[in-house]
Amino acid sequence: MKAGIHPEYRDVVFQDVTTDFQILTRSTLSSKETIKLDGAEYPLIKVDISSASHPFYTGKHKIMDTSGRVDKFRKRYGAK
Asked: Cβ distance 23 to 51 under 8 Å?
């Protein structure tokens, strides 16, 4: 690999702003904000949705079936 062409890969904290869930991982992203975690200071990346707030992972996922579209599809293209 050529030297000097790759971004810096470092420890970063991702924080879900809706649930205050934080995870320490490695990334090439950078930020001007920092956070102290376990006695060390890391760049802080704020995200809107994570596994702590996404409806699919929290079990609050709902399938909306308006006017029986799924039934119409199954009737028309069902297993033959």
From this structure: no
Which residue is it, tokens 């904000």?
33
pLDDT 10s digits, 17-43? 888 899 999 999 989 999 999 999 999
Q: Coil, helix or strand for 45?
A: strand
Cα–Cα distance for residue pair 56/49, rounded to 1 Å:
11
Q: How deeply is 45 buried, as exposed, middle or buried, from its count of CB atoms within 10 A (0-12, 13-18, 19+)?
A: middle
Helical residues (DSSP H) of 2-78, grouped into ranges: 55-58, 69-77
What is the pTM (predicted TM-score) of this model? 0.65
What length does the chain have?
80
